Amino acid sequence: MRMVDLIEKKVSKEALTNEEIKFVVNNFVSGSVPDYQMSAFMMAVVFNGMTEQETADLTMAMMHSGDVIDLSDLRGIKVDKHSTGGVGDTTTLVVAPLVAACGGTVAKMSGRGLGHTGGTLDKLESIPGVNIEQPMEKFKEIVNNIGVAVIGQTGNLVPADKKMYALRDVTGTVSSIPLIASSIMSKKLAAGADAIVLDVKTGSGAFMQTVSDAQILAHLMVQIGALVGRHCVAVITDMNQPLGLAVGNALEVREAVELLSGKIAKGDPLYEVCMLLGVNMMLLSNLASTEEEARAKLENALNSGAGLKKLQQMITAQGGDASYICMDRIDELCSVKRHIDIMPKQAGYISSIHAERIGTAAQMLGAGRATKEDVIDPAVGLVMKKRLGDRVELTDALCTMYVNDEARLQEAIDMFYSAFTISEDKPEYRPMIYDIVRE
Ligand code: URA
Ligand code: CA
Predict the structure, then answer these.
(1) In CATH terms, is domain 334-423 a member of 3.90.1170.30?
(2) What atom in ligand 1 is closest to the CA of residue 180?
(3) CA atoms within 13 A on the CB side of 167
(4) What would the pLDDT profile of 194-212 be if each residue is shown by its tens digit?
(5) What CATH number does the domain located at 3-63 have?
(6) Minimum-distance ligand to the CA of 178?
(7) How does pLDDT run across 3-39, given as a tens digit for each residue?
(8) Ligand 1 in contact with 217 (CB < 6 A)?
(9) How far apart are CA 280 and CA 298, in angstroms?
(10) Which residues on adjacent β-strands are paired with residue 338?
(11) Which ligand has the minimum distance to the alpha carbon of residue 186?
(12) Is 333 a pocket residue for ligand 1 (Cβ < 6 Å)?
C-alpha cells in the first residue's frame, strides 16, 4: 500500500477500507507517513468527508494506537461524560458526585483548559492539595470505595490523536465533523467507560456553530459508540453565553459548591444542564428506568447534601483539603487583590454574547492558558451579572472581574466589551437544550 494512492482515493471521493485506514493511522504514528502526506489526506477528508463506517474504523485505529484502559474490574456500569468544550461549564464537578451519590460508578479522565475553554483538572487543582495524577491502581481503588474519581490522562492514551490534532491545528483541518468525532470518541473509548453521555455544545463559544452541525456530530458519535458496543447518548446544549455565571477556576468550583448546597434554583441553565447530563448517566447506568425517576433521585441527592458530601469525599481521597468545599469557606479560594465591576456602555437588552470572547477575557486575567506552558492563577476570572435577554441600565454591572495581575487588565476589559451586543429590542428566547440523540 502507498500513502499517495490512499490520498488520491479520498480525493476521488471513494471510501477507504478498514485496512487502508489502519495503514494511514499506524504509519503516521510510527513516522513513516510524513506530516505533509497526512495533512493532504486530512484536507481531502475536510472536503470529501467520510462514511460512518470509515469514521468508526478511523476511531478504532486511533484508539488502538496507544494504551486502552480496562476498567472491567470495577463494580457496576462505568459511566463517563464528555463536553465538547465550553465557557463557564462546571458540570463535571456537579454531576460526577451527584451520580456517584445515587450509586453510580464514575471513573473519569478529564483534560486541562486551553485557549478560551476551561478544564476540569485546572478547576480541581484550585483546591489546595488535590492530586489529579493518580496511579491507575489508586484511581480504581478510589472509584471502588466512593464511586467517583476525576484524574488526568494516565499512560499513553491515543498518541494518534495527539499527533493528528497538532497537525490539524496548523493546517486548517480542525473543522471536519468525521475528524472531530474520531478525535473525541477515540479518547473516550480508550478511557474505558461502558457508557458515555456526550454534551455537544453549539453556538458562539463552540466548535459547532449551528444546531444542525451539532446534530450531525452527535449522531455520528452515538453511532460509533454503538458499533463498538458502548452505549452513548448525546445532548445538544447552548453555548451562546457562558453556561454558569462564573468563568475562572476557583470561581467555577465555588459555583459547583453553591449548586450542590442548594443555592442555585431549578431553571438556572447550569442546574438544568447538570440535571440533563445526570439523568442520562443514571439511565445508561440502569440506576433509574425513567427520566422522572432519575431526576427525582438526583434532586434528592442534591437536597439531602449527599452530592456535596460525595464531592468532599472525592477531594479528600485525591489528597485535597475538603474543608474548603462548603459555603462557609469556599470564598477563601476566590480571594484576589481587586474586584472590578464592568458597567455597560449603553442601556438596553443584551441581544448577543460571544461566549468565546468571555472565555478569552478570563484567560487574559490569568484564568486560562494561551500556550500549554502558561501558569494559571486559580482565583482570578469573572462572574457574570447578566444573561442573554436581560435588560441592563448604565448602573447595572455586566460582570465582576476578579483581578490579581493587571498587566492585561485593559485588554481583558476590551475583549469582554467586544463580546456584547446591546439593543433596543428584547431578543427572541433561545432554548438551553436543543436535542437529545440516542442510539
Ligand atoms: N475536541 C477534541 O477532542 N477533538 C476535536 O477534534 C475537537 C474537539
Ligand atoms: Ca432527536
Answers:
(1) yes
(2) 6
(3) 21
(4) 999 999 999 987 889 899 9
(5) 1.20.970.10
(6) 1
(7) 999 999 999 999 999 999 999 999 999 999 999 999 9
(8) no
(9) 11
(10) 403
(11) 1
(12) no
